[in-house]
């Protein structure tokens, strides 16, 4: 009893002395995606054809400044307080891109990613330890491993998939490029963090992924909020499905990339548009209805900052969804570098509220005073009704 009272007194004194410091009930995460090592940005900070390694290094340098900044007065979690500790840094995939000029190897791209995100990232969590890096693969990482309709040289290079797998799943015997098998070596895992269940899945929740997801959710109480992190948006892209025509090969004619196991059901060619995957989406929506504790969904791939509600093709579901920008291939920021951004996620584990803030990290490209500027923000409840 005395120890408990002592802890309460110490906590009260800490709050009185340091009113602007984020308390430990808040988990904070940086979310970025689509690093795309191996390609170049047309323009960046006064230069042209700037390598992904240079741009991502600049991004990491800006992330390192985040803890000392003050959160905006936006009504979100810890508004007006100092950011403080960053507990996790989440990368949403597409580490290596060797489909585009200059066709850099996945091995070289992974080495550059390691230098930037493991060697230069300095943010620490509220426990004083380096922020935990969490990752999912992107479509380019997978295509590197399994091949592509347009031939690459060598045909496959699974380096990024193998390293993400080993880092996140920590197998007793680490995989090698020689023994990696995409059919059996999916990068699916989960973490329970202060009463919130985080699921990290490979690319999109197709029928095959949902088998693993169901088994994982069977271990979670029905009133535990669940957050999904993956690469593709909830609508997915039709070209990411498997060619439905036997022998199911990837061809330049029909554009399928065979990245998710589920066969495309809406024609023999990959169509464009969000409604081109309505049949496939309905399977995902059915799964969401069975698991109403899935409360949020984070993704990259389509590459711009957006907070929205996914309603499914029939407007019969509501899922809070957060799309993040890319430092290299932003839909808008690739044309205007002042718009490039990542997201800061603040999660109050007691109230189960979540605030996501856009972090514009290059608003003054040629200035020494190029600080992060907070842009749009959204706060949602994760409580399970």
Write the layout of secondary structure elements.
Blueprint: H1 2-17, E1 26-32, E2 40-44, E3 47-51, H2 52-63, E4 88-91, H3 106-119, E5 132-135, H4 139-146, H5 159-169, E6 189-193, E7 196-200, H6 207-217, E8 226-229, H7 278-290, E9 294-299, E10 306-310, E11 319-323, E12 341-348, E13 353-360, E14 373-381
Parallel strand pairs: 1-4, 4-5, 7-8, 8-9, 9-11
Antiparallel strand pairs: 1-12, 2-3, 6-7, 10-11, 12-13, 13-14
List key phrases describing it.
six-stranded mixed beta sheet; 385 residues; 7 helices; alpha/beta; globular
Mean pLDDT: 93
**Number of alpha- plus pi-helical segments:** 7
**Content-based structural category:** alpha/beta
Output the helix-strand order: HEEEHEHEHHEEHEHEEEEEE
- Strand order, main sheet: write it out: 5-4-1-12-13-14
**What fraction strand?**
15-25%
Biggest sheet character? 6 strands, mixed
Unreliable residue runs: 1-24
Cα shape: globular
Structure characterization notes:
By secondary structure, this protein is of the alpha/beta class. The chain is built from seven helices and 14 strands. It has helices spanning 2-17, 52-63, 106-119, 139-146, 159-169, 207-217, 278-290; strands at residues 26-32, 40-44, 47-51, 88-91, 132-135, 189-193, 196-200, 226-229, 294-299, 306-310, 319-323, 341-348, 353-360, 373-381. The protein has a six-stranded mixed β-sheet with strand order 5-4-1-12-13-14, with no helix packed on it. It has a six-stranded mixed β-sheet with strand order 6-7-8-9-11-10, with no helix packed on it. A two-stranded antiparallel ribbon has the order 2-3. Helix 2 (52-63) packs parallel to helix 3.
